[in-house]
Each structure stands twice: as C-alpha cells, then as structure tokens.
C-alpha cells in the first residue's frame, strides 16, 4: 500500500481491491488522548464517516463509494477519487469557473441540510473537483441533526476557511455558496442569520481575548 496523505488524525493509503483503485483511511492514535477515549473516537469516527458518506450519496450528493468499514481496526475503505482538491484548484481557475463550482458546493450543502445531515468540517481540502462535478469527503465529524445551529456552524466554517486560505476570493466565493444553498434548502434564511450570530459570537470571544 502506498501512503498518499498523512492527515491530522489519519493516514491514507492507495490500494487495489479486485482491480479497483481504493483509498484506505486508517485513523491513528493520538498520544495526548487517554487510551479509552482515543480508541472510542477512532472507531466512532470511522463508523460515523462510513454511514455519512453513504447517506450523503443516497440523497444525491457525490461522495466516494464506501467499500468496507472496520471500526475495530479504525479502517475505512472507499473508492479512489481521481480529481483535484478545490483548495488547489482555486489557485489557477478563473472566476467564471469558480462561480460554477461554488454554486454547486452551496447546492450540495443545501441538499445535505434538507436531509438532516451536517458535514462538520467543510473546508476546500475536503472537496474534490472531478470534471464538472464536486465530491465531498471527510465526514468523520459530521452527524444527523435538524438544528439550525449545526447547519450554521457548517456554513460558518466554510466561510472561515475561505477567509484564511483564499482571502482575496473569500467574499465572492462565499456569496456563490449562498446562492447555491438558497436554491436547495428552504430554511436557508434562518441558517444565514445563525451564521451571522456565530460570527458575532466569535468576534466577541476574540476581542475579549485581545483585551486580556
Ligand atoms: N477517496 C479519496 N480519493 C482520493 N484521495 C483521497 C480520498 N480521500 C481522501 N483523499 C486524500 O487524502 C486527504 C486527507 O483525507 P481526509 O479524509 O480529508 O482526511 P483528514 O481527516 O486527515 O483531513 C484528502 O485531502 C485527499 O487529498
Ligand atoms: Mg480532510
């Protein structure tokens, strides 16, 4: 197996499965966690990621097909996606193409939310561009909810990543996300209000930290 990525909490390997290119995501131990919690989190997130990848796919959001999941060895085997991470894609794409992709990203988030699924880690490193389509990965921190708060946090994180990694494009790209989102999720207005509230809360905390 060839190591393709050493992530924050998992190693990802390229492997072959009956002639198919697959990715094995193996969650690694974190020495700073107490062992019981460490094992629990690694197996929970492995199983959780598998069930959310499948649920998202079932409601029409593109995700890698889950081929196998083994929480006791913290291993998830999924289809290998041949594409470019949105993070890298943004460095060279022109505005018209970005617009198309970010509207699509917004639509996908809206579809997830209308089906009671939140992603938990919406960053441009967790999105693949494959031709005209966008694939979502890395659902380990996601879950099922109908709470506006969970959806607001999703969009807030998306905005924060854009601001910290692609500052000059952030505002424009986030407005495209909102455009797509509002076309696929009825309750989009309430969620956007929440996003503003979360942002104010964050600012308040940051300002207090600075004053201390
Ligand atoms: N199904 C896949 N096909 C191809 N590459 C993948 C796949 N899943 C993950 N990767 C690569 O591995 C990286 C880390 O995977 P990810 O699931 O996001 O783990 P982490 O929790 O470490 O962020 C991704 O950014 C991507 O480059
Ligand atoms: Mg990731």
Question: Key terms for this structure?
Answer:
10 strands, Phosphorylase Kinase, domain 1, 51% helix, binds magnesium ion, binds adenosine-5'-diphosphate, alpha+beta, 212 residues, Transferase(Phosphotransferase), domain 1, 3-stranded antiparallel beta sheet, globular, 6 helices
What's the CATH C level of the largest domain? Answer: Mainly Alpha
Strands of the widest sheet, in order across it, are 1-2-3-5-4
CATH topology of the largest domain: Transferase(Phosphotransferase), domain 1
Percent of residues in beta strands? 15-25%
Percent helix, as a range, is 40-55%
Class from helix and strand fractions: alpha+beta
What's the CATH architecture of the largest domain? Orthogonal Bundle
| Radius of gyration from CA coordinates | 18 Å
Note the gap between the termini.
50 Å
Q: Report the biggest beta sheet as strand number plus sense, adding barrel if it closes.
A: 5 strands, antiparallel
Classified in CATH, the superfamily of the largest domain is Transferase(Phosphotransferase) domain 1
Low-confidence stretches: none
Q: Number of helix segments? A: 6
Strand segment count = 10
Number of domains: 2
- Secondary-structure element string: EEEHEEEHHEEEEHHH
Mean pLDDT: 95
Distinct ligands, ions and cofactors found in the model: adenosine-5'-diphosphate, magnesium ion
